[in-house]
User: What shape does this take?
Amino acid sequence: MSDQDVITVLPQLYGGVPGENFGPVDYRFEPLMRDGRVGVEMHSLYSTEETGENGPAAAIVRYLPNGTARPHRHPGYEIILILEGEIETDDGVYPAGSMLVMPPGSVHAPRSPKGAVGFVVWEQPVQPTQ
Assistant: This one.
């Protein structure tokens, strides 16, 4: 999945303070290597830097072909909307248009052999499992 592919699936992003500096925002994908991720990038929409140490976060996450994440636990809800490509877990394969809702306490290890782009909301930061 190339940067050009992402441009076709992502909505125009707007941000800032309404009434002051609200306007279009460019996507900036950074490698996401924490918690054992490989071949995963993200554009943060908001993070624990703004919401507090155990606060919520949201991002556009891009799995490059063969991107993986190690198993991790969700202490709060996680919602993933697959925008492009497909994500796999031990429970199945989820194509574009799928919405995954992970309840608190759930564990998974997403991967994407073909590549994928998703909108992800974390109620709390994930916890690596042993």
